[in-house]
Amino acid sequence: MKKISAIIGFFLVGFLLWYLIIKPYDYLVTFKVKTTVGTINQSIKLWNTSLENSSPIQQDNLANLTQQIKIKDSTYNYEWSLSRLNDSITKVKVYVTDLNNSLANKISIPFSKTDFEKQTIKTVSNFTENLLQHLKKIRVTIEGKSSTRSVFCAFIPMKSLQKEKARGMIQNYSLLNSFLSTDNIKMNGTPFIEVTNWNIENDSIAYNFCFPIIKNDSLPKHSLIQYKQYNQVTALKAVYNGNYITSDRAWYALLDYAKQNNIAVNNNPVEVFYNNPNYGGDEMRWKAEIYMPIKE
Predict the structure, then answer these.
(1) CA 107 to CA 114: how far, in whole Å?
(2) 140 phi, psi to nearest 5 deg
(3) Which domains are delineated in the chain?
């Protein structure tokens, strides 16, 4: 009996030592959602900008983010861990710590519903509601292997964050459209963007905003507008419906599809647009074809 008591005591002391001192978080929230890691990553960052007293998101990689929110006299630290369970479901774990009252929370949580616990559940629930509302406003359909169209185009090279891509397009659409609306220029398709560099870690992109045209020998010159031949590439294709601000959700879906099917791709997507955002309308009727080039 003494040995049994000693063993129980040893494990009890070990557990208390881990729970009160070593355990790196105060509370864990877990949920599952039908979308990609990338979509959740971008949604957390967008949601964070809407919060008061929150610090910029820090990111180790696409699946691990750190967020801090000041609530009254405390600073809450949120560690987001995202993991893909299958081809449609992502599991989200949120490790939450009150940096000012961690020990007190760990002692109180097993015995009562603390204000810290209530606030944590409220905050994470607020995010999940925002995420689910966002998912109702977009649709991504993977179509598999395809190819882009070879075309000559007029374009403006640009750099921005992913979330600012649509704004850049809107600002330059009228410029390109009016400049190319001359008698000797004939359009040859709908506008598209060619991403030339995508930094997934900091959400920045460099891209060409292109208008397909028929090539001729008397193209007008402009200080911002250039001309080039865009060559066809074999790619994975998806169709995106929704506001073009978040068309990058299809990028992540294509990366997931490529990984699941062992297809090597270049992270330089091409987006072909079939609607003019300046005209507004039902965003779920907006259509874009998204291509992720396959490595040769």
Answers:
(1) 10
(2) -125, 125
(3) 23-136 (3.30.530.20), 141-293 (3.20.80.10)
Spatial CA neighbour of 212 closest among 185, 196, 191? 191
Which amino acid type is present at position 185? I
Per residue in 243-256, pLDDT tens? 999 999 999 999 99
SS3 at position 7? helix
The count of residues in the chain is: 296
* pLDDT tens-digit readout, 94-113: 999 887 765 555 556 555 57
| Full-model pTM | 0.88
- CA distance linking residue 252 with residue 88, whole number of Å: 12
Structure tokens at 105: 């929370």
